[in-house]
Amino acid sequence: MTEAYKGVWPVAPTPFHDDGTVDEEGMRRVLDLMVDQGVDGLCILANFSEQFLLTDEERARLTRLCLEHLAGRVPTIVTCSHFSTDIVVTRVREVKALGAAMVMLMPPYHGALLKGNETQTYEQFARVSDVGLPIMIQDAPLSGVELSVPFLARMAREIPAVSYFKIETPQAAGKLRALIAEGGEAIVGPFDGEEAITLMADLDAGATGTMSSALLPELIKPVLTAHAAGDRAAAAAQYAKILPLINYENRQCGLRACKAVMKEGGVIGSDHVRHPLPPLPPATRAGLLELARELNPLALTWGR
Fold this sequence. Notes:
Elements: E1 7-8, H1 24-36, E2 42-44, H2 56-70, E3 76-79, H3 85-98, E4 102-105, E5 109-110, E6 114-115, H4 118-129, E7 135-139, H5 149-158, E8 162-167, H6 172-183, E9 189-192, H7 199-204, E10 209-210, H8 217-228, H9 232-253, H10 256-264, H11 282-295
Helix pairs in contact: 1-2, 3-4, 5-6, 8-9, 9-11, 10-11
């Protein structure tokens, strides 16, 4: 068995020009920055990448651009979620051919009321498993689908490719702890998300990885490294330093924070987000940059 993936796997933002068109050169610069941040892997086309605001053609073009530009420098997860199982399977086959290391999937859902039940979700993930890439299940409130610990553990035991889990529900640490206890060795990669806002509790519960944003992964990584080495005090001290910025990102800005810092740092030329998402209010942006300057993450200086 290959060594399990762990560590910091941030989500790459999708940069746009001020007119809303995709900034392909900016996308390459974002990826180069993330490699320089020392990430253990990264994720493209996730919700924090504004995947729900991309056309099918843009999605296909960005997938190829990212995987070809990275060229295996770091392993890459591609989000391939869709309500249609046939579309998901087609996407997964395509990214496997392009060199993706893993795919991330939410359970099938479309809007507030059209949701796959456990049988349909199981069947979709089982069909994707046949393609032959590891699957990370994203357990997030956005889907509106409740994924119970017994059901997640059952899929881990019975579906060969299901082995990684990104838990970002309320009380994530408790769910991670219960999932690890229920699933045992079948839970290869328990990760958290939500910009690492509950990281210490999640690490204490047994998480071995985190999917943050690309705002400050090089400052998050020492927390995981120290915790894995048994130095919880050092991990907690480092986390305490960076938590105000993580909190501000998560609670005040969302996906707009990373873009704002990258624009300020010369990584990308615009922090445009696509409508109906609103731009950051000036006062919120100023508060974000004030906190970022105190920590001086690489995203704030890389392009200068």
